[in-house]
Amino acid sequence: MQPEKKEKKQFYLKWPWNLVVYILLVVLFRVFSIPLILLLMWWNKKQQPGGPAEGYCMQRARGQLIQLVWAAVALLMAAAGAAYLTLSWNADKTGWDSMEYIKLAAAGLLAVGGVLVAGYLAYTGLRDAFCPEKSRLAQSIRDQLPYPEEAPPVKELFAMVDEDLCRNGQWFGKLAVGSEWVLGDEAVMISHIRGAFWQDQIRTRRSGNRVSTTRILELWILDNRQQCHSTAFRLPKELQAAVECLRQRVPAAVFGEYDSREYNDCIHADEQQWYFMEQEYERRKAQLEQGSR
């Protein structure tokens, strides 16, 4: 008999030690810590080929800590607004025109708004990471169940989605499509999907002589409660592949571009219109099931 091969033990940083290491790197190396953090994140992912040890859902919830970065950006903007407001308030206002007072008011709004936005982003990021049972992802899973108020604990909620994705998951950027669940920024049960709408737009902004372009790649999934769940993509091919996968998973659903007639009909339907749309969905579903027999 051949001796059994021992499974090679994988080394990677577990939660919360990975977070501690990332924070220490930022404190020690500041902006130069970014490539080191990216390298460690790549290593952690490589050492877990079967998926993250804590599960896809828990990883997604803890990943909301990235909002602390945007909270810091909002605080910097608030500080800039407060600095301008303070300097202008103490300056000699002789000869000021209306534009100067408008700038003063705008600086005040920027200072207050920046603090409010930073507080909100910091709160939601920390809440989702350290209290996953209160996270937006956990709530989205509860909302898909027949009796959300009787939902199991968060570990069992996340396990339902994780098990499906481990067995049947296909990944398109940050969106995963299983046989029962779709996981993006929120989770949606596939049997509840009534529509999928994609957005691939290039927006142009002009500031003086400068022209900047931004490409928006998003997928909007509409569920049976007439609620939309959006997920952003980095590459057009990931968005296109995700749409094609959903066409195979939910062929009876409505598909179209964002802000198209189909999209607006579904999003803005009143209660009676939505009732007829649900009947039409069931009719298409029954026809497709009969045709596949």
UniProtKB/TrEMBL annotation:
This is Uncharacterized protein. The chain crosses the membrane at residues 20-44, 65-85, 105-126. It comes from the Bacteria. The keyword Membrane applies. Keywords: Membrane, Transmembrane, Transmembrane helix.
